[in-house]
Amino acid sequence: MEAIIKKHYTFLARVSLATALITITTLCLVPTEQIPLSDWNDKAQHIIAFLILTFLIDASWPETELNWKKALALLGYGLMLEVLQGFTDYRELSGLDLIADAAGIGLYTVTSPLLKKIPVINWRWSQP
Fold first, then answer.
1. Considering the chain, what percentage of its residues have pLDDT values greater than 90?
2. What parts of the sequence cross the membrane (predicted)?
3. Taking 60 as the threshold, does the pLDDT of residue 101 lie above it?
């Protein structure tokens, strides 16, 4: 029974990760005036987005702990977004955004002991 639940949660995490990647990519490549909540602090948006992405990538492959490969994949994604923004006329490449992305990944690693206590998501760490 537990294996079935794990399988469903993993599937849900992977679908959520794909949805989040598509949504974030779209939001990063449209003009800023078309983005909801564009008046929020840009760096805070990056930190929150990458905190969530880090949880989703970690939950999508629960058989391995968060490691440098998962983190590097997310930083590569963040770099790709920045490069793509540099090719637009209405956005710009920002190294500070990439630092904020890394801060979101780091925030996940620091807060994961607290996240393990949240019943809705603690299944991620209950794997043997």
1. 55
2. 12-32, 44-61
3. yes
Q: How far is CA 89 from CA 18, 36, 92, in A?
A: 27, 20, 8
CA count, 13 A, side-chain hemisphere, 24: 22
Stretch 97-103: mean pLDDT, rounded?
96
Sign of CA dihedral 73, 77, 80, 82: negative
Sheet strands (E) in the chain: none
User: Left, alpha or beta for 37 (phi > 0: left; psi -120 to 50: alpha)?
Assistant: left
Q: What is the band of 107 on the pLDDT scale with cuts at 50, 70, 90?
A: very high
- Whether pLDDT at 35 is above 90: no
The full set of domain ranges for the chain reads 2-125
**CA gap 82, 97 in Å, rounded:** 8
- CB neighbourhood size of 125 (10 A): 15
* Separation of alpha carbons 13 and 60, rounded Å: 5
